[in-house]
Amino acid sequence: MTTNRRRKVVKYRGSQTHGGGSKKKRRGAGHKGGKGLAGSGKRAHHNKQKIFKLFGKDYFGKKGFFNPNKKVSINAINISQVEEFLPKLFENKAISEKEGVIEIDLKKLGYNKLLSAGKPTKKYKILVPFSSKKAQEKIESAGGEIVS
């Protein structure tokens, strides 16, 4: 035969804290350690596994906005280096020669600035977004041109 047991709620009637210790305790989420996934930071490896299952690997780490004002990184090359790489570039058909003028697109080769170190021995038509004044003078004095 079953016995009637009092429900826990009834048992705690009249008790101010319902078995929760001091009045202060069990008051807010802070006593529980936060709401939701709070406390699942860097050092909570036991919680990370659960978070990876729920949200994937992108839950942690930096995310945010792209800064449009950030300066473009300059990848520069000297005239002497261009002279040095000429045979390889001709082999790979990365550059072309028309009427004695060698046409080079440095942007395609991964460079965005031409610097003045070295002397040009041939006529060049160089397509590049940026170049130093001295480099421009040297190329033009050799009979070539720089197109921005």
Labels describing this entry:
alpha/beta; four-stranded mixed β-sheet; 2 domains; 16% strand; 25% helix; 7 strands
The computed structural class is alpha/beta
Q: Order the strands across the largest sheet as they lie in space.
A: 2-3-5-7
Spatial shape: rod-shaped
Determine the strand fraction and express it as a percent band: 15-25%
Total of domains = 2
Gross CATH architecture of the largest domain: Ribosomal Protein L15, Chain: K, domain 2
The CATH topology of the largest domain corresponds to Ribosomal Protein L15, Chain: K, domain 2
Our count of helices gives 4
Please trace the helix and strand order, writing H or E for each element. HHEHEEEEEHE
Number of strands: 7
Describe the structure.
The protein has 148 residues and is α/β, with parallel strands linked by helices. It folds into 2 domains: 21-66, no CATH class; 76-147, Ribosomal Protein L15, Chain: K, domain 2, CATH 3.100.10.10. 25% of the residues lie in helices and 16% in strands. The protein has 4 helices and 7 strands; from the N terminus they run H-H-E-H-E-E-E-E-E-H-E. The protein has helices at residues 8-11, 45-55, 79-91, 133-141, and strands spanning 76-78, 96-98, 101-105, 113-115, 123-127, 130-131, 145-147. The strands form 2 sheets. It has a 4-stranded mixed β-sheet. The longest helix has 13 residues, at 79-91. The N and C termini lie far apart (97 Å).
